[in-house]
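Following up on my earlier thread - several people asked me to post the actual chain instead of describing it. Fair enough. Here it is, all 262 residues.
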Amino acid sequence: MKRILLPLLAGAALALPFASAQTILTEWKFTDASAYPANTSTPAASSGTGIASIVGINSPTNADFTNTSGSRAWRIRGTGDVGGNGWDEKAPSGSQGARFDTSTAGFTDVNVTLSWWVTNNAIKHAQFQFTTDGSTWIDFGDVQTAGNAGDFANGAEIWTVAEFDLSGIAAVNDNPDFGFRFVAVHSPVAFTTNDSVENAASTAYMVARFDPDGDTRPFDGSSGNWRFGDVTVTAIPEPSAYALLFGLTAVAAAVFFRRRRS
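Reply from S.P.:
Thanks for posting it. Predicted structure:
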């Protein structure tokens, strides 16, 4: 009997230390063509449970997957009279981008990592936001700036990896209504355009492109788009889940022992 009971209890005990280890809760692996063989504006998570969607873009069904950014990516764009790719230079700051929803039920210490790629004429700055009720959005962290390759030909067209540690926010833990989004925002710094137009901080969108003469260009909506590589949510299983596992294993062992005796 000991040869059966002890391994059962030992197996449950060995699982307990993993309660403090980060594990992938949900992932959108947009770089994997096999996970996303067809274009979509609402891709489901490739691992775990979740759904992504496009925010504030006109006719977002034009979203697709492309390899033109060096690796496969989900391209956020639209069509129509709002702008060349559906992005609107007149849209309120923080109203255009991508949203990701996933439950954190049974998990704590949530972290989000995403890779982001911006074309030359797209909006340069982004803000990470999260929600705990599915509708109210809270800014988190600094305004993100698209990476810059440092030359006019390639502009900002390099991958930028952004990480957001939400482990200190209790309301994010064990929450079925958790979600986050990455949205375009006005430039956090004042800038003067190449035609001598002055824009105060937080009043206008700046394009990502790099001009060798130092000129800065405003976003005009005629072209440009964002792309996402892998988007990953990691978290730590709540201790109660492992305590339950240990308890159930112990009960199963006890029942087995009783049956053996009878």
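The longest helix spans residues 239-261. That should answer part of your original question.
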